[in-house]
């Protein structure tokens, strides 16, 4: 690592602590040449392959996971920080499993479980894209499955 200010290679760590909210280690560093201080965050690099629907593989990217959830959570009560916390939880769960490969379907199901507990609108938005609903009936069924007391009742639009 080099100093971001003068690019000198000799640095010293002045403080280290856990940054639990982002699942990282926060380190305060000081450059031995220019004496300026800066903060770095150390995270575990998850080496995991995602098998997509078409059979191809790609590296797991938490940023892509966050992007998909943020699209579903736009204009809901879920904050940017909550989306990041959910992504961190999913990543930690995958790391704890110690697996090298996951199906995109399984990853999508994990996201849906978390969104369902957090916000129903975000859950439905994510499900629409993830499950690729082909008609309104599939969407209505997904919505009705959220409320167990409505499972036997047919959907009826309210008239205004």
SSE diagram, text form:
Elements: E1 11-19, E2 24-31, E3 37-42, E4 49-51, E5 57-59, H1 62-73, H2 80-97, E6 101-103, H3 104-118, H4 120-130, H5 136-144
What's the quick description here?
By secondary structure, this protein is an alpha+beta fold. The protein is built from five helices and six strands.
Identify the notable features of this structure and list them briefly:
160 residues, disordered C terminus, elongated, 3-stranded mixed beta sheet, 3-stranded antiparallel beta sheet, 2 domains, 41% helix, alpha+beta, 6 strands
The proportion of residues in beta strands is 15-25%
Number of domains: 2
Spatial arrangement of strands, main beta sheet: 1-2-3
Please tell me how large the radius of gyration is.
21 Å
Gap between N and C termini:
64 Å
Biggest sheet details: 3 strands, antiparallel
Look at the helices and sheets and give the structural class.
Answer: alpha+beta
Runs in which pLDDT lies below 50 for 5 or more consecutive residues are 149-160
Helix content: 40-55%
Mean pLDDT level:
86
SSE pattern, N- to C-terminal: EEEEEHHEHHH
The total count of strands amounts to 6
Assign an overall shape. elongated
Number of discrete helical segments: 5
